[in-house]
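Exam revision sheet. Question 4 asks you to relate a sequence to its structure. Input first:
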Amino acid sequence: MSLRLSTVILPVDRWHHGGRAKWQRAEELGFHAAYTYDHLSWRTFRDGPWFGALPTLTAAATATDRLRLGTLVTSPNFRHPVTLAKELISLDDISGGRITLGIGAGGNGFDATALGQEAWTPKERADRFGEFVPLLDRLLTEGAVSQQGDFYTAEEARNIPGCVQRPRLPFAVAATGPRGLKLAARHGQAWVTTGDPKLYEEGTPEQSVAALRGQVEKLGKTCAEVGRDVAELDKILLTGFTPDRGRPLESVDAFVDFAGRHHDLGFTEIVIHWPIADSDFAADQAVFEKIATEAVAQLG
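Answer key, structure tokens:
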């Protein structure tokens, strides 16, 4: 399968002061998709501007025509399947069927305690995620849903007329552990990874490639266990969290080398961060745009 190139635009700009222009430029540059993070605040951006993901995507949907749009990723940290489903079918309708839901179990960031709760343990996050995804799947495909769960309840929840995309908008499930991979195999149209976080500080690019190869192999085995053809799933690599860090964006050649090595592992989509000055995602805008317009053609 040919490689697709996408970008992620963090929601840090006021819409009328640079925000809209970025999403429109992403479409002009030919990116397959543009995603944003679904957080209440995030890491070093906590004390600066940070806007809501779903309103931002709604605005982006009205400002673009062809670009796919989505989250990387939404999590149960502050979302409920019933309310999220209603917002997603609305967003899918407004965009004309261009939405992908990136979804993960969440972590220990600021979202984990912003609503006043104690941060969940990894097991608790996995338990909630295991209930969240199947219920959201039902809510987006059935006209009326009632379900009493350990964590989430739906009582005659209606989502008529459903998604523009049928049977529902695609899920891109972020996972590396066995329970998350099983959710990706059963409910995902795509699988998302950022690599092995343990290698970010001290690992090498070669070790990262080996770890990603292992993740892809585990996904294949999990799909086989549930009777799914792993080839049906897109494999998405969100960059910026491997030992390579920002080096792939230093030149077209550097990116082509990076993307080629990961395409060989089976990845079908690579996502690069839109440059943000004075941050971990700082990069030369001109080089970034040259990568967007020239790199994929060099990968054959």
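Marking note for examiners. DSSP finds eight helices and ten strands in the chain.
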